[in-house]
Amino acid sequence: MSDTSTSEQAPDLDQAPDHDHDQDHDQARDLDQARDRDRDAIRDLLTAYVFGLDRRDFARVAAVFTENAEVRNVFDAYLPEGEAFSGLTVGGGVVAEGARQLFAGLDATQHLLGAQEVTFADTGAHAATQIVAHHHRGGEYYHTGGSYEDDLVRTPDGWRISRRTLRITWTTGSPDVFSAA
Fold this sequence. Notes:
elongated; alpha+beta
């Protein structure tokens, strides 16, 4: 019986290296790592803002925003004090000066950041962050809860907030705590 088979066999395609797949995997891993670094930088930026408020470091507050940032305060309709605190402010420096004036008569504040979600788009990022804010003067207090809805852009100095909506969904205490004694 004669053997007509040859000793050469076709390469097993399942075993051949897939350089395109490896390159795609490396690019996906690199993108994931970059997104993780961006998320950390955005969280650090939002933390810098609340520490700036609570430590009365208003230059730090201004620095988290772009020069022409739009910041809108919105209170849920059922909150009677909402009208006094709702509105639009433009510019990081103007936001910081408004906070300086608002907090001038307070003895202490504490702004706590809660659950957070950061998503990315071609034009930047969006962060949704739960917030609880405590404002105290003497034995009086005014606590608020809600969320920051932030649009962020990457600048030469890092991530900055270009648009923020502070949405207050609940309060307790009296907004009179902001009135000078």
